[in-house]
TrEMBL record:
Feature: compositional bias, Basic and acidic residues: 202-230
Protein name, entry field: Uncharacterized protein
Ranges where the record places region Disordered: 190-251
Keyword Membrane: no
One GO CC term on file: cytosol
Keywords: ATP-binding, Coiled coil, Nucleotide-binding
Molecular functions (GO terms): ATP binding; ATP-dependent protein folding chaperone
Chain segments annotated as coiled-coil in the UniProt record: 97-124
Organism annotation: Lotharella oceanica
The keyword Endoplasmic reticulum is assigned to this record: no
Amino acid sequence: MSTEDFKVYESKEAEMTNTDRVVRETAALRNDLEQYTLDMRSRLRGDLKAYITPADCDKFMEDLQTMEDWIYDEGYDAQKSTIKKKLDELKARGSPLERRQYEYKNSKERVERLKVNIGKYRQLGASTDKKYAHIDKAKMESIVKKCEELDTWATNTAVLIGNTPQHNDAPVTCAEIKAKQDELVNFAQPILNTPAPKPKPAPKEKKEEAKKEEAKKDEAAKKDEAKMETEPTAEPAKAEAKKDDEEMDLD
C-alpha cells in the first residue's frame, strides 16, 4: 500500500469512526428525550401537579403526547442537533416546575432553622456570662437588635410563602433565606469571638526599689570594710615618726 493509499484509508477509517460515534450519541439523546417525555407526563399527574395551573398542565400534556408521536416517527431519522433542541425545549418548561417544588418543599424548614439560630444568638447577645463580660455592651446589644430585625423578616417571609399559590414561583428562595442565616452568623460571631484582654504584668517598681536598696547596703558594707582595713596601719606610722624625733634630740 502506497503512502497516498494509506492516507486515503486512514481518512475513511476516521470518518467511519466519527459516524459511528454520532450515531451512538444520537441514539442516546433520542432515548433521553423519550424518557423525559414519559417521566414528565407521569409527574404532571403526580408530584408536580401542584406547581402548574390546570390549563398549563393540559397544554403541556398535549405537547408531550405530540413529542412522543414525533419520536416514534420522524425522530428515528432526526439529526442529533434536532433531538437536542427538542429536549432542551421540554426541559425549559419542566425545570421551573421542579424548581418551584424544591423551593416550596424546603423554604419552610429553612425559615424554621433561621428562627432557631435567631433565638440562639438573641440569648447570647443578652448573656451575662462572665466569658462575655469583656465585650462592649453596645456591641452585645447590637446582636440582639440584629436578631429582632431578622426575626421580623423570617416571620413575614413565612407568611408570604404560605400565601403564595404554589403554581407561581416562590416569592423568597431558599438561597435568600440561607443568605440571611449567613448574615446573622457573620454579624454576631465576630463580636462573640472578641478575645479577652491579656492580664497586666505585675508592677516592677517595687522589685526595682528593693534591688536598689540592696545595692546601697552592699556599697555601704564595702566602704565600712575598706575603712576598717586602713585604720590600724595609721598608728604604727605615727609611732615610728615619734621614735625618729627622739633619736634626733639625743644627737
